[in-house]
Write a structure and sequence with these properties.
The chain is an alpha/beta fold. The protein has 10 helices and 18 strands. The chain has an 8-stranded parallel sheet with strand order 3-10-9-8-7-6-5-4. A 6-stranded antiparallel β-barrel has the order 11-12-15-14-13-16. α4 crosses α5. It starts with 17 loop residues before the first strand and ends in a 6-residue tail after the last strand. It binds pyridoxal-5'-phosphate. Pyridoxal-5'-phosphate (PLP) binds next to loops. The site of pyridoxal-5'-phosphate has 11 residues, from loops.
């Protein structure tokens, strides 16, 4: 699939690739072949379970990558912010699941209404108040469907499975078609916990779908997932999965075992700006890599294929590897870093370059997140 720049001067013409050597560091570099391989293999894995894929747009926030996912067979996308929603409904026209409770903020009502008028949008609800606010945002005859968010061990938002039927009745009274249930197994983000999280999520969704069925609602969408639970996905109750980070992978996913190093499609290219004995300083700091540092992960990034070359200290525009023990590096050399969280890197760097040959690249400009 040829990649075109999001804001090319002539939208019909693909932007001309630029030599990597001309791009100022730090920048995010995406390997197009690995990206497409990740998209294809997740699609295949989910299809082999008899389920559908509805990838999360928040990871890349670019129409080009979303198109690749839809072309590969995704049934739609998941979004988490009004900007993401407006962009996907406006430019892609594919079905969208809004997994965040955007209706809680009346300031964005007009965008929610315009998006649901423009396309097939499913909104999350998880309280009577969130139903009322959605109805207030969309007007008396809402076209949109709703899915009930189920709490499945993450302890974020969501209702207990046994409370789904009551909420479904409330949503129906407000004029909504109840399309099913969904959950987010965020507790999967801890080493050794991802398998249990997947099982916990399946149990919660299965109980919730059964409660809906007993109340006369058909759960057409039973939506699950995060990237760390995908290796433990099983056929059965779940009808669709929503991983996002799988397209790039990152150090968190590597540590959790949800991706292998050969699958990492996004790195941050940085320049060595100082070398003092065993201390190597790079020009990619917290404003490029992000400061994501879960308790179970040392450091803020590592050099590609060199876990021992760990970024242990971070400043806004500097990062420090110490002790650095590896092939000698000099000031002015370029290195490639695997960031802890590819989602944060994509937000912070605001653009990313996609390469097919490792020599030149085309710019992608993700949608801002707010
Ligand atoms: C509701 C929801 N679904 C799916 C995802 C995607 O998960 P991941 O980033 O692990 O791929 C997220 C991530 O935050 C989420 O909040």
């Amino acid at each position: 699939v040829p990649v075109t720049a999001a804001r090319a001067a002539n939208p019909v013409e693909p932007a001309a690739p630029r030599p990597l050597a001309e791009l100022g560091t730090p920048f995010a570099l995406i390997d197009g072949r690995l990206l497409r391989a990740n998209i294809a293999s997740m699609q295949e894995a989910v299809a082999s379970l008899g389920a559908a894929l509805r990838p999360h747009f928040k990871t890349h926030r670019t129409i080009e990558v979303a198109r690749m996912q839809c072309d590969a067979g995704a049934i739609g996308l998941t979004v988490a912010s009004t900007r993401q929603l407006a962009r996907v409904t406006g430019e892609l026209g594919c079905p969208v699941l809004v997994s965040s409770l955007l209706q809680a903020d009346p300031a964005v009502s007009a965008t929610l209404r315009a998006s649901s008028d423009a396309g097939e949008v499913i909104f999350a609800v998880e309280s009577a108040r969130s139903v009322e606010l959605l109805r207030a945002a969309l007007g008396p005859e809402p076209r949109a469907e709703v899915v009930i968010e189920v709490e499945a061990g993450c302890e974020r938002s969501g209702v207990a499975p046994r409370d789904c039927a009551d909420l479904a009745r409330i949503a129906a009274r407000h004029g909504f078609e109840v399309a099913g249930v969904f959950s987010y197994p965020g507790q999967s983000y801890a080493p050794g916990r991802s398998r249990d999280a997947a099982e916990q999520e399946r149990a919660a969704l299965s109980e919730a779908a059964a409660a809906l069925a007993r109340a006369g609602f058909e759960a057409r969408h039973v939506s699950a997932g995060s990237t760390p639970t995908m290796p433990y996905a099983r056929s059965g109750v779940v009808s669709e999965y929503r991983p996002g980070t799988y397209v790039f992978g990152d150090r968190q996913q590597l540590t959790l075992g949800s991706v292998e190093s050969s699958q990492l499609s996004l790195t941050v290219v940085a320049t060595v700006i100082a070398v003092h004995g065993e201390r190597v300083v790079l020009d990619a700091g917290g404003k490029a890599l992000g400061r994501d540092g879960p308790r179970w992960l040392d450091g803020f990034g590592q050099l590609v294929d060199r876990p021992e070359a760990l970024i242990g200290r971070l400043y806004d525009h500097h990062s420090v590897i110490e002790p650095y023990r590896g092939d000698p590096v000099r000031v002015g050399d370029r290195v490639a870093i695997v960031p802890n969280n590819a989602n944060s890197t994509m937000v912070l760097l605001q653009s990313a370059w996609i390469t097919e040959d490792g020599e030149s690249a085309v710019e992608l400009r993700p949608e801002p997140d707010r």
